[in-house]
């Protein structure tokens, strides 16, 4: 890829950093309607955020260092700020998991190896490209959570507050890594190849994390609950399939999806919460 001084940007909208603390101390461990399987899915996702988001931040910062575009540079600062607060809150979330006996350290050890392989063997451009792919996938998941309350209707209120906040901000900054990548003019097949690799890596990380949770205390019934939630009702993964595929369209840009518009409906609530907890 060639480095380029300017970017074609969709990331010009302000990306505010909302420094919010979520108090999960009263939340039950099986916080999603008492379902071990559905809770396990979200917990597996939470476990990969701190290392994953730190990797995203490093990748985007390195990529943006070569770009001279004030709007995109401001968006990158917003992206870094939002992901930093997400990591902080999910570290607290994950501490609950390790305190309860789940092997979060093993999950992170395995994930750290994957990240090391990307950064040391594949290099900076691939790390940025993989970040943009992961951000696309989190953004399409976020588009569902922020749009349809069915996903978290049965959730403990504090957990719901945290997940909708994270989803909203993922949709809000969903174009930043893509725009930094686009400034380097990646070829179509490079972009597609990295998405195939990233999809496989994300599934591997989530499945491994869920496996470590399941090994600790999940009955086989939990897996059925999780698969039903993901593929049948409400059908989380089934319903993100087409938005996910949009990446493979030539000329794709994240802001062509509805995710960031859906997220806007929650902004006033979290802006007010930011002021209250500041
Ligand atoms: Fe995040
Ligand atoms: Fe993100």
Structural features, described:
There is one protein chain. Helices cover 70% and strands 0% of the residues. It is mainly alpha-helical. It has one domain. It is globular, with a radius of gyration of 18 Å. Residues 2-9 have low confidence and may be disordered. One fe (ii) ion (FE2) binds at residues 53, 83, 86, 166, 170.
- Output the number of helix runs: 11
Hetero groups in this structure are: fe (ii) ion
Q: What can be said about the biggest beta sheet?
A: none
Write down the domain tally: 1
- Cα distance, first to last residue? 42 Å
Low-confidence stretches: 2-9
Shape: globular
Beta-strand residue fraction: under 5%
- Cα radius of gyration in angstroms: 18 Å
SSE order, one letter for each helix or strand: HHHHHHHHHHH
Q: Which structural category fits the helices and strands?
A: mainly alpha
Q: Mean pLDDT, as a whole number?
A: 93
The proportion of residues forming helix, as a percent range, comes to 55-70%
């Amino acid at each position: 890829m060639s480095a380029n001084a300017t970017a074609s940007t969709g990331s010009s909208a302000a990306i505010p950093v909302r420094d919010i603390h979520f108090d999960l101390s009263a939340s039950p461990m099986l916080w999603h309607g008492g379902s071990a399987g559905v809770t396990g899915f979200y917990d597996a996702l939470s476990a990969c955020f701190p290392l994953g988001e730190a990797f995203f931040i490093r990748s985007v910062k390195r990529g943006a260092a070569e770009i001279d575009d004030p709007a995109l540079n401001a968006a990158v600062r917003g992206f870094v700020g939002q992901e930093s607060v997400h990591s902080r809150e999910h570290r607290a979330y994950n501490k609950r998991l390790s305190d309860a006996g789940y092997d979060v350290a093993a999950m992170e050890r395995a994930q750290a190896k994957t990240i090391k392989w990307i950064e040391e063997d594949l290099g900076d451009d691939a790390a940025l490209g993989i970040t943009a792919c992961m951000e696309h996938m989190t953004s399409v998941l976020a588009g569902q959570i922020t749009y349809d309350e069915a996903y978290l209707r049965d959730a403990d209120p504090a957990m719901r507050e945290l997940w909708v906040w994270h989803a909203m901000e993922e949709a809000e900054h969903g174009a930043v890594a893509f725009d930094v990548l686009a400034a380097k003019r990646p070829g179509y097949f490079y972009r597609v190849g990295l998405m195939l690799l990233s999809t496989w890596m994300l599934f591997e990380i989530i499945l491994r994390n869920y496996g470590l949770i399941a090994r600790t205390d999940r009955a086989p019934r939990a897996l059925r609950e999780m698969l039903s939630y993901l593929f049948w009702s409400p059908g989380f993964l089934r319903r993100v399939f087409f938005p996910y595929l949009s990446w493979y369209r030539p000329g794709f840009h994240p802001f062509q999806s509805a995710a960031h518009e859906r997220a806007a409906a929650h902004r006033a609530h979290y802006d007010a919460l930011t002021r209250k907890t500041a």
